[in-house]
Amino acid sequence: MHLSRLRLIDFRNFKELDVSFSRGINVLYGDNAQGKTNVLEAIYYLSNLRSERAARDQQIIMHERPLAFLKGVFETCTGSVEREVTVFSDKKKVVKEGGSQKSRWSELCGDISSVIFSPDDLNLIKGEPSLRRKFLDAVIYHIKPGYMKYLQVYYRVLAHRNKLLKSVKKKPSLSDNIDPWDLQLCDAGARILSERLEFLNRIGADIIDIFNNFTGAGSVLKINYIHSVNFTSPESIEHDFLNTLKNSREKDISRCFTTCGPHRDDIQFLINGRDARFFGSQGQQRMLVLCLKMAQARILTRERGEAPIMLLDDVMSELDIARRKLILENHDSQVFITTTDLKFIPDDIVEKSNLYRVRAGSLE
Length: 364
Ligand SMILES: Nc1ncnc2c1ncn2[C@@H]1O[C@H](COP(=O)(O)OP(=O)(O)OP(=O)(O)O)[C@@H](O)[C@H]1O
Ligand SMILES: [Mg+2]
Hints:
- This protein has helices at residues 36-48, 123-126, 129-143, 147-170, 178-215, 237-247, 249-255, 276-279, 282-304, 321-329, 347-351; strands at residues 2-11, 14-20, 25-29, 67-76, 79-88, 94-97, 100-102, 114-117, 221-226, 266-271, 274-275, 309-313, 335-339, 354-359, 362-363.
- 35% of the residues are buried.
- It is built from eleven helices and 15 strands.
- Strand 14 (354-359) and strand 15 form a beta hairpin.
- It is of the alpha/beta class.
- Helix 3 packs across helix 5, helix 4 (147-170) packs across helix 5 (178-215) and helix 5 packs across helix 9.
- The strands form three sheets. Strands 2-1-4-5-6-7 form a six-stranded antiparallel sheet, covered by helices on one side.
- The model has no long low-confidence stretch (mean pLDDT 93).
- The protein folds into two domains: 2-113 and 307-363, 3-Layer(aba) Sandwich (Rossmann fold), CATH 3.40.50.300; 126-277, Glutathione S-transferase Yfyf (Class Pi), Chain A, domain 2 (Up-down Bundle), CATH 1.20.1050.90.
- It is 42% helix and 23% strand.
- Bound molecules: adenosine-5'-triphosphate and magnesium ion.
C-alpha cells in the first residue's frame, strides 16, 4: 500500500499543499522549522486518525484558523482509497472515505496503516512502564480490534475499584463490595495478560531478529514481560489473578489503589543481561526503538498482507552508513524520511529516492 497524493489545507504551517508521492523512498529535506515533521504527522494522522505528538487534535489546525483539512489517496492491493479528515476547532472531526462519512473504524479500509519513528520515541525505552505497555497494546489492537474493548473494560473497572478502595478505607464495613469488581477485573485482566504474552512472544522474535541484523555478533538481546500477577500456567491466569488480588487487598485498601494487574506490568529489554532502560547507551536505546518500530511494521505486514508506510523522522544522522542502508533497503514499503541535510543519506540511496525540499510550509 502507498500514499499517492496528499492534500492539506490549514494544517500546521501548511496553508495549502497538493503533492504526489510514489512508491519507494521519499526524502523530505530542508532547514529546521520548515514543516518536514508536519508532513509526516499529516500522513500518520490520515492513516491512524490521531496525531503521535499533538495532545489535542485542535493543535494541528493552523493558528487562528477554524479547521484543518487533510486528504490522502492510498493505493492498496484492492484499489485506490480516498480518505479525508476535517478537524474543527469547536466540534468533532469528520472522516470520509470514498466521499461518504464514516463514524467507526470498522467502516474504514483496513489496509491503510503507518508506523512512525521520531526522536521522542526514545522514551519507549527510557521512560515509564506505561509507555511500553501502550506500545504493546497498540501493536495488539491494530491487529485484533476486539482487544481494545477488553482494555476499555479493564480500565473502567479499575477506576471503580480504586474509588471503592478509598471509601473502604474510611468505612471498612464496605469491604464486601469489592468482590464483584475483583471478578470483573480478573475477567478482562486475564484476557489482556494472555494476549500480551502471546503477542510479545511473536513480536519479540522479530525484534531480536532485527536487532541481530543491526548489531551483528557480540550483543545479545533478551525480552521479558514483567508481571505483577504470579500465574502457574496460561490457563490459570484468571484464577491466579483473583488470588493475588485477595492477598493484596489489605495493602490496596491502605494505599487506595490496586497494586497488581496488567496496569502495573512492564516490558524489559536486556542487552547482554543488563536492562537497557538503565544501562543502555543512548545509541543502543535508539537502536532498540528502531527495532521495535520495524518489528511492528513486519507484524502488520504479515497480518494484513500490506506493508505499512514507514515514517522516519530525523533518524539518519545518528546512524553509521551501514545501518542507514540496512534501514532504507530492507523493506518493501513506502518510506518517508526527513533530514536537515542530504549528506546524511547514503549517495546511492539519494539517487533512487524522490527528493522534496521543504521550505516555509511548501514542498518543491
Ligand atoms: N498549529 C500550527 N499553526 C501554524 N504553524 C505551526 C503549528 N504547529 C506548528 N507550527 C510551525 O510549523 C513549523 C514547522 O514545524 P516542523 O516541526 O514540521 O519543522 P521541521 O521542518 O520538522 O523542523 P526540524 O528540522 O527542526 O525538526 C514550525 O515553525 C512551527 O512553529
Ligand atoms: Mg522535525
